[in-house]
UniProtKB/TrEMBL annotation:
Keywords of the record: Lyase, Stress response
Protein name: DJ-1/PfpI domain-containing protein
GO molecular function: glyoxalase III activity
Database matches in CDD domains: GATase1_Hsp31_like (cd03141)
DJ-1/PfpI domain mapped to chain residues: 92-230
InterPro entries: Class_I_gatase-like, DJ-1/PfpI, Prot/Nucl_acid_deglycase
One of the GO biological process terms: methylglyoxal catabolic process to D-lactate via S-lactoyl-glutathione
Gene3D superfamilies on file: 3.40.50.880
Lineage: Bacteria, Pseudomonadati, Planctomycetota, Planctomycetia, Gemmatales
GO cellular component: cytoplasm
Pfam family, one: DJ-1_PfpI
Length: 234
């Protein structure tokens, strides 16, 4: 039975382990998705591995997304200045307390923080519950890091699945290849995923394989939202 609710997963990690850069949730990857699915009639709840406070990647408040620099306005800035919305990132639900039966889909946001806390046994168990119930599993950018340890039976969920995620080429262009703990692209391939990416970096690219929907980078978040909403309505 449809619940018209989507569980969105965000990071609790605000800095890298080896370098001094700060990181966290790439805000647009949450807001662009919500700006699509909420008008389509779906309520979004927010959870994180530890629960509680969610740091924001400072660069996500400065770089251009979808033609708008947040410092000059745009959809992300409207969310950022919204006190009620930002207060939701102060005290998020703990992943271990989430119940897959209460939602139609799960959506994993990115930001480099997820490279450090999305390989989480509670998140893997929760994601498997969504998948085994025939519900939508979706992710964008670094969000597919949350798929790396998910198993269905004895096999990785991503094995033989067509998907995408932040590419190693994009990691290099972002100058984070020495800061991240692994190549997401390579780790997905190691688990048997049929990884694909756009011809050009940093353009919107979404891959659907049954109930699995993934987007390559921050500018893919809205398109992932559109794909999730369309499939839920079908």
């Amino acid at each position: 039975m449809a619940t018209n609710r989507i569980l969105t997963i965000v990071t609790n990690v605000g800095e890298y382990e080896k370098v001094g850069y700060r990181t966290g949730l790439w805000l647009g990857e949450l807001t662009h998705f919500m700006d699509v699915v909420e008008p389509s009639g779906f309520q979004c709840d927010i959870a994180s591995p530890k629960g509680g406070y969610v740091p924001i990647d400072p660069e996500s408040l400065m770089l251009q997304e979808l033609g708008h620099a947040i410092c000059l306005g745009g959809a992300v800035h409207k969310r950022y200045e919204d006190r009620a919305f930002m207060d939701r990132l102060k005290d998020t639900m703990k992943v271990a307390d989430a119940d897959a039966s209460k939602y139609d889909a799960i959506y994993m946001t990115g930001g480099h923080g997820v490279c450090f806390d999305f390989q989480n046994p509670d998140l893997a168990k929760l994601t498997a519950a969504f998948w085994e119930a025939g519900k939508i599993v979706s992710a964008v950018c670094h969000g597919p890091a949350g798929l790396l340890e998910v198993k269905v039976g004895s096999e990785y969920l991503v094995k033989d699945k067509n998907l995408t995620g932040f590419s190693w080429t994009e990691e290099g262009l972002a100058k984070r290849e020495k800061a991240v703990p692994y190549s997401l692209e390579d780790e997905l391939k190691k688990r048997g995923a049929k990884y694909g990416k756009a011809t050009l970096p940093f353009v919107s690219h979404v891959v659907e394989d049954g109930s699995l929907i993934t987007g390559q980078n921050p500018v893919s978040a809205a398109a992932v939202g559109e794909a999730v909403a369309k499939k839920l309505k079908a």
